[in-house]
Design brief:
The protein has 233 residues and is mainly alpha-helical. It is built from 10 helices and 4 strands, in the order H-H-H-E-H-H-H-E-H-H-H-H-E-E. The relative contact order is 0.07.
Length: 233
Amino acid sequence: MYPTLYPYGVGGFEDPSRPTALSFEHQAKYYLSLSDRSFRYHYSFIFVVLNILQRRKAHLHTYFTVKKSSFDTVARQLTCVSPEVLQRLAVKLEQESKLSNLSPEEENALKLLRQVNTLSARIPGSQASKIFVRNEIRNYYGYFGLPHIFFTFNPSAAHSPIFQVMFGDTTVDLSQRLPHIPEGRLRAIRLAQDPVAAAEFFEFSFRCLFGYLFGWDFSKAQSTVQGGILGHI
């Protein structure tokens, strides 16, 4: 599939001849962390890997919920719907066809689907995963009470000299108080070219912030003995 990335035809994902089993996700992370940045800079590799991961999560971690009063009825009717009917219905909905042209079986399937809610909180990048994280934050309110300080942390990789060094620019001198960085257009091109370095920059930034400013020990998942500027969090 990628002759420029695998010129010898070996090293693919989930190779059954591999002595030690290696998961798809771990192997993808390994390829993106290589010093040879061919996988990072490829125009479609990252998107294809993310799409495969999302599809797998969708198949393994998608659940249906329905009201308790109609559970028995909906469960029996769902087992009677054939995959062919659902496939035809999906094609018509994707093509935005008129719902008046549906067959009786497709209408019945559509009515059942309207009574069912889909939960996909574990699919990375999905709207449900974002809602899941927001609900977790709201749960903290109920346990700890409303926060007294709201802090927004949004480091910009495009304007940071640290990101330029992570990208591989050896001309940026971080020992200076105001390091000289390239022009804005080149910084934007670098950010688009290497999104993995941008993600690494963000993780490095928030770990430094919580570690040195707020006194958080990531290895122990608790505040350090000294604490930070807000005490122990």
